Amino acid sequence: MKPILPILFLAIIFAGYQQTTAQEKKCTPIGKLEITLENDLMTPEALWAFGRVSGQEVSPDGKTVLYGVTYYSIEQNKGNRDLYTMDVDGNNLKQITKTCKGEYNAVWRPDGKKIGFITAESGSAQLWEMNPDGSNRKQISEIEGGITGFKYAPDQSKILFTKEVPKENKFAALYEGLPKATGRVIDDLMYRHWDEWVDTYSHVFVADYDGKKIWDAKDILEGEPYQAPLKPFGGIEQVDWSADSKAIAYTCKKLTGKDATLSTNSDIYLYHLESGKTENLSEGNMGFDVAPLFSPDGTYVLWESMERDGYESDQNRLFLMNLDTKELTYATEGFDQNVGGMVWSADSKAIYFVSDWHGTFQVYRYNINDKSIDKLTEGMHDYKSIALAGDKLIAARSSMSMPTELYAVTISDGEAQQLTFTNKDLLGKLTMGKVEERWMKTEDGEDMLTMIIYPPHFDPDKKYPALLYCKGGPQGPLSQNFHYRWNYSLWQLTATLL
Known about the structure:
The chain is mainly beta. 11% of the residues lie in helices and 37% in strands. The chain has a domain at 435-497.
């Protein structure tokens, strides 16, 4: 009699393989949605159908823009992000990915020959690369537990990445016979951030890279019980490579327990790859110091800085350090506004940034030579982020009446040309209410800015119910952001139906 168990075993494996393959084939990529509207008023279904544009990156040669669009499926109860490229003038638009796992943190490799991105296609979030046209996708990293962000070294010899490092499981140590128990032993702060338990530390790693794979990864905060980037909102923007690829600057709050809970005193640390030594560049400043960024010529490193410890909505200032002399400059002293989203000019003589003023976010330029600040843009909209492309800035812009799209802003005169029209069709089916700014005198004699949003098809001869929205905070202002939770156009529908 022939043995049947091996045959049966192989049959089970083959059946399992067929089932897995069938499940993979059932995967439907989430893309642009076609919805039917009963009228031209905003609805929850219309709001969730908008494509969400983000993450514009300009190629090293300054000719091509890479960006992502996220669409959501109510049926699948999830979203998915695919990648697009276009010329810096908006021509030759191409969708270069269409997958079920999505592509995130997508950037150009320094030589411009590849696009690096993070996807969970292999089962965990890993670094992958592909050609600029989306072809030849290959997995580059195989890091246990996956990664959360990455950056190429300018000389392309190494890659830094961030990943979660598990904290000691004190419950498991006490009860060795209960390996699957989910209990926790809590004897210290900070044990929770917003809606998640703090079971891991986010650390920065550096690894060798040869264009095909990474290896010999080293935790540059090994053994340190700190978060870098900072939880809960910090990302890869809080880490950067020096221009010579010999050092890494990162953001970290090196405090534990109650001190870490009450303090906002994060600092900018500089890790030297050759010696393994770390120095604190912002020591002495007691508030938040975040988001270091090296100048292209290697002379400077800048960062965002708040002054006071424990005051998490303090003014966000631009600080600049000369790496040769260690001279520290409060660059935006006397500029009574926040700064954010900094970008260096190609010649390292200017810094572009976005700042909020009177209910809008505009683009500004800080000139290093004479320490002057120029306002480059105007208008009832928010510039959310910018990327340099020769004599232009590729900017993400939104308003209360339009989701984020990409624009080319001419540096010399601030003129803006719309490049992407991701939501043109859907917006063409909707009528948005007119937005009008209005200044009012308060009881104590101060001037207060308010925004009046009229109902769609407003008739001045009719009476309408009014909704009053008082902005909380104070971390962020009321501005022209197109919000997907507190969406004013959706509230207009409510007011219209009352």
